[in-house]
Specification:
Length: 312
Amino acid sequence: MTKLSTKHLLGIKQITKEDIELIFRTADNFKDVLNRPIKKVPSLRDVTIANVFFENSTRTKLSFELAEKRLSADVVNFSASSSSVKKGETLADTVNNILAMKVDVVVMRHPNPGACMFLANHVDCSIINAGDGAHEHPTQALLDAFSLREKLGDLTGRKILIVGDILHSRVALSNIFCLQKLGAEVAVCGPSTLLPKHIESLGVKVFLDFRKALQWCEVVNMLRIQLERQEIQYFPSLREYTMQYGLSNALLAELGKTDIIIMHPGPINRGVEITSDIADGKNSIILNQVENGVAIRMAVLYLLSGQVKPTS
């Protein structure tokens, strides 16, 4: 297989295991490129990519922009805070105006779930979802799984735990879909108020007791509390949350789980969901995730742009 089964990357739910494996093989090649003295290739020299962000972003936006420049694409950056969206312009009109400037691919982050899917039905270019509300964040899940594959090899049967604010997390949902397609066993853990109703229907194990969850897993992916998405208070205090669901070396030593692999999609709230000695420790692959984010996004951009490039 040398081509993705879809024109867009709207979510992990919409792609196949074969798509994921193709993205990983392509990312392996681009990771080699990133380790060369000259970290740039002319693969997308004739392609124009627009980064359209309706929500604040640091790591994802920088990672996409760096990936685009490493591929020699022309890059247009769009910020909703300084655009005509503030004057009442619709999403479709905004993007169609961008496309009128001959843009080939749109990378979009939007606060509303489904915005990328809506756009894909109304514009004639490839759309990459860089996060839509609390729905999906597919490139984050791909880079997480890619990082785990580097560490563990085949993920079939591996026990992976996602901890924290599952209710408001687009990362959690995309990770569940991606890891399950690669054959892993997935569990979630957090306060009952931060777990979606009927989460078991996705085929995941559910833990309310963090200690029992840690005893079960080989890998733990710690999520931050997304206070900016919470309209009500879901737990008494951050201090109490940390006491119940915070990860520290002392806790892992007590449980005899000092070899567990630690992940975090960022940004890290040190001292809340994770301590600094864990985040910077020998079992953490957090910086590997950041590094692999560029290679994964290069792969996605390359594979999708190859389907929209002119044939002449």
